Amino acid sequence: MTGTKKNRLLVFTIIMALAFSLTTVCLAKGPKYGGTLVQGFGVYPNSLDAQVASGGSSRVMVSQYNETLIDTDQKGNLLPGLATSWELTDPKTIIFHLRKGVKFQDGTDFNAEAVKFNFERIAGKIEPKITGPGKRTANSFESVEAVDPYTVKIKMKGPDAGILSFMHGWFTAMVSPTAVKKWGDKYLFHPTGTGPFILKKHIPGSQILYEKFDGYWKKDKDGNALPYLDKMKIMIIPDPATREAALRSGTIDMDQEIAAKHAIRLRKNPKIEVITIEGFLAKFLPLNTGKPPMDNVWFRKAVNMAIDRQEIITSIYQGEGSIPNGFFSPISWAYDPNLKWYDYNLEKAKDALKKSGLPEGTSFKVAVYNPQAKAEAELVQAQLKRVGINMVIDNVDFATFNSQYRRQGLYHAAFTGYPQTGYDPGFMNFVFHFSKGPYSDPSHPTMYDALAIQARSAAGGDREKRKEIFAKLHKLVYDNAGETYLVWTNGYRVFRSYVKNFKLKADQFSEATEVWLDK
User: Fold this and answer.
1) Which are the contacts of 62, defined by CB distance < 8 A and separation ≥ 6?
2) Can you say whether residue 261 is alpha, beta or left, with left for phi > 0 and alpha for psi between -120 and 50 degrees?
3) Which of 104, 190, 324, 452 is least buried, going by the fewest C-beta atoms within 10 A?
4) Average pLDDT of the residues of the chain
5) Under a CB-based contact definition with an 8 Å cutoff, are residues 198 and 105 in contact?
């Protein structure tokens, strides 16, 4: 073989080897490192301190840099988190065995003393101003003991069937004791956890920027370091139509808050994937039953019967949703199909208004903090006018809603919602119906307390017995017309097709620990 032929053969062999190599790379399945994931959200959280933050979307914001003792999968199965295992040694005692070798993002060791510090902080014993959703439960702990550096024993004042569910809530995130002590009142600007990302910068009401934490403890199933992403950005875009346009253009990669009509349109886009979670969110109108005229039970009944829920489903949710019969939707084990709620009936609504003794044109004021709820509120406003009730809408931000409706009770009602998955039904019922619960009626009625406590603490967690308790509580709420259920809506998680390994947790939201970009 001549030298020229040998050279040609060598070149051909190299070209074929390169082609095979490139083909192998292109066909190889698995994560790619690097890149920035951009998410769009409609509402900025009321706090970046996980133990203060409230509201479902807050979980996504704070869980990028925080973690909890227990993790979950989408079906609600409990998985090891910062605790590798746990056991209930009796109905009032739980022991956690902690993960070793984990550090907070400031270098502080994660250990039993850190867990003890965190639960005392959540309970408000270290900082009385802490008023997050976890405060009431943490206050029900008789003691939190660091048995040894990696074992924690919690003694509760009474049995709690929902305690393990509570432990994976974002509001029980483990934060760095060192950072809390260092920053004091400014900690919310320097939140520090054990999570996969470090919060680098935030512009209130606009955006939050994250960078990967190189010291993160978790590995993927093949032993590779996590997270895969270098950075992440959350952009606050209140207008749903603008977020839809941003998804189409690729300005954002994901939206975990998108409304039905936008999700339905995006299903037709081959570059975008849509996950539909049926019956995910209960939209309702919590009432401040101590503030006139909402203190009048017949007025509250008139409001309930004047609302055409099917019209809401058809007009606002594109026919995707269902009419509620109570607090729980069919995707919850606590759902009871035999329960009834107020039917739409204009004549009965007008009669109830007459029985209230209040004149036609009586007004009440509602807070609306989520831009997606604006159209819903305006439709309900028009429906109530048909019976002579004037509902005044006040559009506010989330922080104002929490302060002025939930804490100060300045509004008669509010448009909001709660998830039907992710947490024990007794826990959800408790936080909304117990008089001192974080999401309870601002007038703090105590008529539900005994049953709310029973449903949550039923020994052994017997579901049938607990459903009986839920039914009794439902009757009390019904007779009192204590709130107004509007619709069980679907949830939608939308992302561009190059976003890979998107996984939902039990609350049907996702963080970005194992997400990677196939760009």
Assistant:
1) 45, 48, 49, 50, 53, 170, 173, 191
2) alpha
3) 190
4) 91
5) yes
Six-digit token string for 512 = 């970005």
8 Å CB contact between 57 and 257: yes
Alpha carbon distance 193, 181 (integer Å): 14
Q: What's the rounded mean pLDDT across residues 397-423?
A: 89
d(CA 429, CA 291): 23
Calpha distance 412→286 (Å, rounded): 9
- b (16+ CB within 10 A) / e for 198-227: bbeebeeeebbbbebbeebbbebeeeeebb
Average the pLDDT over 427-436 and give the result. 90
> 67-81: per-residue pLDDT in tens?
999 999 888 889 999
Looking at residue 140, its pLDDT comes to 87
Residue type, 290: G
Closest to 163 in 3D by CA, of 148, 144, 191, 147: 144
Task: Tell me the pairing of strands 483-496 and 272-286.
Answer: antiparallel
**pTM for the structure as a whole:** 0.80
* CA–CA separation, 368 and 394 (whole Å): 6
Among 114, 37, 78, smallest CA distance to 422 is for 78
Residue 305 in tokens: 């019967």
Whose tokens are 């702990």? That residue is: 141
Contacts of 495 (CB under 8 A, 6+ apart): 253, 254, 255, 272, 273, 502
In this model, does residue 230 exceed pLDDT 90?
A: yes
Structure tokens belonging to residue 92: 């009032």
Q: Which residues contact 292 (CB under 8 A, 6 or more apart)?
A: none
The two structure tokens encoding residue 407: 């804490």
Classified as helix, coil or strand, 333 is coil
The Cα-based distances of 162 to 169, 292, 337, 427, 430 in angstroms read 11, 35, 23, 6, 10
